Amino acid sequence: MKCFVLYGINGDAMELTVSASENINGTLILPLFEGSESVPEKCQTGMSSSMKNQINRVLSDGDFKAKKKSTMSLYGGEDGKAILVGLGKSDDCTIHDYRNAGATVTATIKKSHGNEMTVRFDGAGISHMAAFAEGMMLRDYSYNNYKKGDDDEEEVEVSIRITCSEKEEEELVGKVNILKGVCKGVHLSRDLGNCPPNDMYPEVFADMARDWAKDFDNVDVTIINYDEAVKAGMGGLVAVGMGSSRKPCMVIFEMNKDVKGRCPVLVGKGITFDTGGISLKPGANMDEMKYDMGGSATVFGTMEALAQTGFEGKVVGITCMAENMPAANAQRPGDVIKGLSGKTIEVLNTDAEGRLVLSDGLWKAGEFDPEYIIDFATLTGACVVALGHEATGLWSNDDDFRTRIHEAGNAVDELAWPMPLLPAFEKEMTDSKIADTRNLGAGRWGGANTAAAFLKQFVPNRDYEKDGEQITWAHMDIAGTYWGAKTNIMVKNGATGIHVRTIYHLITNS
Ligand code: BES
Ligand code: ZN
Ligand code: ZN
Question: How far, in Å, from the CA of 326 to the mean position of ligand 2?
Fold first, then answer.
């Protein structure tokens, strides 16, 4: 079974529309502020008195307090069902609370709620209503490609109608349509990350990218296959991938390539399975290393979000795809390799492979006259030690740029936390006795920082000029945030699809 055949199925269970209708069709979804003692006046239009009485009773008895992320389902009323959802206190209720409330509702929906629902807001702003819709859509995802299907499973096809005033309708429809496109990007990233490694390997990812691009006139996908990568001197990509029967490749996405001027270049680590190679990982949880291509999924997902929403600017994505296997022809600890940059690397641990493939991806990025380069990588366990599953590690050679990414993350509630790019770490990664660089720090401390410092050695100067200025670059270590983020309410389990929304926000708001 090849997963790309099934691409497009996941995340499609919900049909969400916006309308200025006054009717309540199906189950009512009612977001409420803490302290509400009765149904807000604005929400009463089209509501039967029996439903109003039932909700009023629940509220006045204090049975539903409308705390953040809480819900209560009301069944058995004379005029249908309702889901009450809490927004917390009205004075500190943010757009994030609306998004969280939307996601909470999706997580609550069961077959017993029926398959038609109407959302009614109490005078929320347009951006707040849109965020609620976004939360609903983001959470509407489960990865079922490999399940036969079970009638008892709570996968429900529902149509949701967000109601608003006539005055608001056009703007809200526009906003929700954009968010639908962005959610497609997030869901695609999750599909890629969740796909098992026997079906998701470099060639499959490349085929998927090529097939996907056929739907868009303004996107070109170029695949640099194994032989071409060898010929081009992509020594990092080749060294990591050569031990696998599934050979490595580089996939380049170019959107609106004829637009003049500099553009963002996104680079992704795409290790479709990381055994550690000859420096073999321990067995426990090794299955999770299928998500070691999360960086490449972020790049592909962001391209999808931009393409779906008709973005007209130029953007380039480069994904470095390889499978890291132990084999007779795998690279060894002790090997010295040379990649595109011409710098040599002493490979002291074959499990530090992400930085090797990225060294070629980052150097290649320089060919596209980048306004800036951002790389995404499930790079280090050390980053998970430092930040848990709560925030991505964020490094940059430009403080202002780092702040911009941090703020873009905050705007969409995807935390990216500033980390230090210190000269001492660079020194540590460049003091190999026999090569220009080493892929392992001198000790285990600061492992996420030494990895970032290593990557910096491969960020080219403008126009590759020897003494020129280094291109603005940021590195995002998503080892902890791409997977296993139990507090991320936007996702049930598995791949999170993190940072598609951050980077979409960054690119489209500047
Ligand atoms: N893919 C791993 C990093 C990782 C760990 C991602 C846990 C997600 C969860 C990476 O290739 C790796 O193995 N890094 C090593 C580096 C070390 C050998 C310097 C690590 O973090 O242990
Ligand atoms: Zn590794
Ligand atoms: Zn890895």
Answer: 12
